[in-house]
Amino acid sequence: MSTTERDAPDMATAEKFKVLSAILRASDEDDESIEARLVNDDEADEEGNPKPFVIVSNWEALSVINDKLNAALAPEAWKGWRIVYIAVDKDAGGRTGGPFADMRLSGSTSDTPCAPTEGPSPYLVPEGLFAIDSFATTGFDDEHDVCSGCNTVVRTSPDSYGWQPRFHRHSDGDVSCAKCLDAPDYLDAHTNKNRMLNDGLVNPADHGWTKVDVDFENGLHPGQNDDPRAIMKTLQDIGLDVLFTGERGQFDTRFAPWVRWDEAMGNGTAPESCSLCDENGTNETFEWDTDDKGWVCDSCGGTTMTETRDPAVAAKEALEKGTTKLPYDPGTETAKALRGEHSDYVKMTVTTITPEQFVSGEWTKGEKK
Ligand SMILES: [Zn+2]
Ligand SMILES: [Zn+2]
Q1: Range of the domain at 49
Q2: CA 83 / ligand 1 centre spacing (Å)
């Protein structure tokens, strides 16, 4: 027997979903510890139908699915190879997790199987067997989640340096993909909040926001002490709504504000005087009328219209005059704390952790502010 994987079955997308759904149901009935979920791939086939994606919790689940798939669709090859895999698995101390956990049997034949992972790459699936890969894309559940709107898989853990999430996790834990995300809701949740909006999901420019042409930095390099809270306050003080977009580096964040006039606070320009009673204009003598989009005179109650000022220009002016920085330098203060010197701003706690805690990553959680 040679080690050539059986050709991908000539099956329509809908048919693949049907076959996989039956296999997954049977696996679940057989063994409750098998966790596998059939969802939509975020890529579509030639006809625009979503492709199947199977999310599993471990190799064991893949093994059971591959086993059942071959028992159903390739019974002859299944009978022949299953015995070989069981023997190999036993030889290898059970590390393949079952007959078809990892279908690679490089360079092996039914007479002389070699242990999985021992042969040279590329590993080939033995002749006559199907791998689940010819039916679906697969991934593990600690790296993937599912959009509650359209049942499409989203990657939740970085797979490259410049990775940006293409989903939003709501406060109740539900996940929305970029397509299903309610943009106005998402923008609201980030308006006047000290948190960064992912502009790969929603472009604020499409929703009446203007980006301010400034670059702010906060991080551990000296001088990176721009403070989003201070920036937000400076902008809100002149009647602007604020949200932030930017990029996270390893040790710092670069960000910029987006602004629009706060509905309740006016259009940025109080009139110079009231056209009806000659009252001199300041924001104190005129009140903004949200419905009429005009300024109502406190003395006579008449309304004066003014042109809306470019919020980004007003923002830049305010930022040049107002506070935008922390009262200290995070990099300098952190360095002091690390040297064991006193810092008024950065406190350091020393904790010893076990190698197991280090590997689990748990030690980085819970300490963050
Ligand atoms: Zn979706
Ligand atoms: Zn007046």
Answers
A1: 13-140
A2: 42
Q: Does residue 30 belong to any structural domain of this protein?
A: yes
Q: How far is the CA of 369 from the centre of ligand 2 (A)?
A: 50
Regarding pTM above 0.85, the answer is no
Number of domains making up the chain: 1
For the segment 223-251, what is each residue's pLDDT rounded down to a tens digit? 899 999 999 999 999 999 999 999 888 88
Ligand nearest the Cα of residue 299 is: 2
Look at residue 215 and tell me if it is in a domain.
Answer: no
Considering only residues 5 and 149, tell me which one the structure prediction assigns the higher pLDDT.
149
Asked if 243 and 217 touch (Cβ cutoff 8 Å), the reply is: no
Ligand nearest to the CA of 297: 2
Output the CA 266–ligand 2 centroid distance in Å. Answer: 17
Question: How remote is the CA of residue 284 from the centroid of ligand 2, in Å?
Answer: 13
Helix axes 228-236, 311-321, angle to 10 degrees: 120
Closest ligand to residue 271's CA: 2
Residues 6+ apart with CB under 8 A from 289: 295, 296, 303
